[in-house]
Amino acid sequence: MSTRSDRRWAELARELEFTRLPELRRQAEGWRTGLTGLTALLAVLVLLKGRDDLAGLPAWARDSATGLLLAAFLLLTTGSLLAVRAAHGAPEREILLGGQALRRWTEQEVARVTRALAWASLCCVLGVVLVVGARGGGGGGWVGSSGAPPRRCGW
Questions:
Q1: What DSSP designation does 50 have?
Q2: In this structure, is the dihedral angle defined by the CA atoms of residues 113, 118, 121 and 127, taken in order, positive or negative?
Q3: Burial of 66 (0-12, 13-18, 19+ CB in 10 A)
Q4: pLDDT class for 138, splitting at 50, 70, 90?
Q5: Which of 2, 30, 76, 155 is least buried, going by the fewest C-beta atoms within 10 A?
Q6: How many CB atoms lie within 10 A of CB 27?
Q7: What pLDDT, in 10s, does the model give residues 7-47?
Q8: Is 147 left (phi over 0), alpha (psi -120 to 50) or beta?
């Protein structure tokens, strides 16, 4: 025997098929905003808190730190672009008028958005790890190196 509550839960489960894509898009917008902010924050931190001059570092340390920061920036930018793609989709070439075609497209788009969000989050984590590696001495970056101390903000 089915209660009114059971029927309502079953109805909500059926509606989930139609609301999943908009929910994923909203989630992707949050990721996009977060990744863009994180990329900008890391860029500012590198500029304000980094050494005045990396020339005092050994060549391998300077090259490693620069490479790690460049790779981190590329990963964070890629993550942001993937989140934008997930949030807004890609331009479509055809308009779907049939119910089954729309259903297939929606299922495929849900899979694409989910995959793009997974890659965006991975790019974010790897980008942050690379920045920490460059700043923390993993590439010989700023910490513990002989040379000029980090620049301080005069505020």
A1: S
A2: negative
A3: middle
A4: very low
A5: 155
A6: 16
A7: 887 787 778 777 888 888 888 888 888 878 877 777 777 66
A8: left
